[in-house]
Amino acid sequence: MSRVFSPTAPEPVRLTDAMRSVFVELLVHGPLSRAEVARRLALSPSALTKLTKPFIEAGYLLEAAGEGPAGVGRPSQPLRVDASRMSFAGIKLTADELFAVRVDLAATVRRETSRPLASHDLGHVLGRIAEAVEELSVPGRPLSAVGISLAGTATPGDPVVHTSPFLGWSRVPLARLVEEAVSVPAVVDNDVRALTAVQQWFGAGVGHSSFALITVGAGIGCGLVIGDRLVTGRSGATGLVGHLRIDDRGPLCERGHRGCARAYASAPSIRRSIASTLDRPALTFDDCLALAADGQPVARRVLDEAGAALGQVVATVANLTGPELVVLSGESVHMYDVCATAFDAALARHTHWTTAPVRVAVKPFTFNEWARGAAVTALQHLLLHR
Ligand SMILES: [Zn+2]
What we know:
The structure is a single chain. The protein is an alpha/beta fold. It has 3 domains: 3-84, Orthogonal Bundle (Arc Repressor Mutant, subunit A); 86-197 and 369-385, ATPase, nucleotide binding domain (Nucleotidyltransferase, domain 5, 2-Layer Sandwich); 205-362, Nucleotidyltransferase, domain 5 (2-Layer Sandwich). It has 12 helices and 17 strands. The strands form 5 sheets. The protein has a 5-stranded mixed sheet with strand order 7-6-5-8-12. A hairpin with a 3-residue loop joins β13 and β14 (220-226). It binds zinc ion. The site of zinc ion has 7 residues, from α7.
C-alpha cells in the first residue's frame, strides 16, 4: 500500500497487488459482472467489494447498473473502467522522424502528431519530444506517463537505452532526460515489445496467456508473451530473429550475412532485390508487391522466397515458445496477401512434426500503432510497477 496510482486523481488511489489485478482484469476484459471478476480472480464477494471501493470512489471504475443480464438472486452490476480517467502519450522514434499519440486508458488514440528529426543529437531529439508532448497536452487533463519506443535495446524497468542502431545511440539515459524535459514520468521500451504490449491488453493477444508477435517492415521483429508475461530478457534484448539464417546461398543483408531472414523478407531487401534485377531503381515496395501479384516472374520469385523465409521464422519461434497464437504485423504486413501460399507452406514444413498447426492472425497495420505501443508500455508500467 505504498504507491500512488495517478498523480491526476483528486484523491490518489494507493494500490495493493490485489487492487492492480482487479483493475487490470476490468481494463483488459471488462465490462464484467462482480461475480465474474470474483470468479476469475478467486476472490470472495466481500473481498472484491473492498478492493473496488477506492477505484469507484475516485472515479476509475464505473458501476453500470441495469446493464447486466437480469437474473435471480444477487443482482449483477457490471463494472467497467472509465477510460477517460487517465491519458498517456506514446512516442515512436525512427531515424528521421518521431510519431506521437495521446491515448486514453483503453489505448484509444485521441490525438496524434509527428516531427521530423533533423539530427540524432540528443538535445535535438529531446526538443522535438518536448514539442510533441506539448502539442498533445490538454488543459486540466495532465498526462499520467509518457512512453518512448525505438528499435534497439531498452526495457521499461531500465531508464537507459543500451543501443539504438538507427539513432547511433549507446547507453543514453533517455527516460530520465525525457522526464526532466516534460515533467511527466517516462519509460522507454523496444518498439516491437511495445507493439506486443498493445496486442496483449487491447488486441489479438487478449485471452491468450502465450502468444508471439512477428513484425515485418524495415526489419523483422519478434515480441513474446509467455505465461501472461511480456518477455523482456536481459537489458531488453529478446526476439532478435531478424538475422536468423534461412539459406546460405541467399542474398546478403547489410551486416554481411548470406541468406538471413532480413535479407529475404525485410521491405528494403525485397525492394532492392526486385529493383536491381529488373534494373528499375525507382520501384517502390508497393510497386514490387503489385508486380508479384501480377505474376511478373522476378517479383514473384522474390516474394515467394520472402514468404518462405517468414514462414520459417514463424515456425522457429513457435517451435521454441509454443504460443497459442502468432500475430503477424508491422508496416509491410500487407505483403502477406502476395506471398501467403509460400508462407503457409514453409510454416507447415518447419513446424515441429509433433505439434499442432500454428495459428496465425494477420493484423492490418497503421503507422501510428508504433506510437500507440509506446503509450501502452507507459500505461502497463504505471499500472503494474509504479
Ligand atoms: Zn543478416
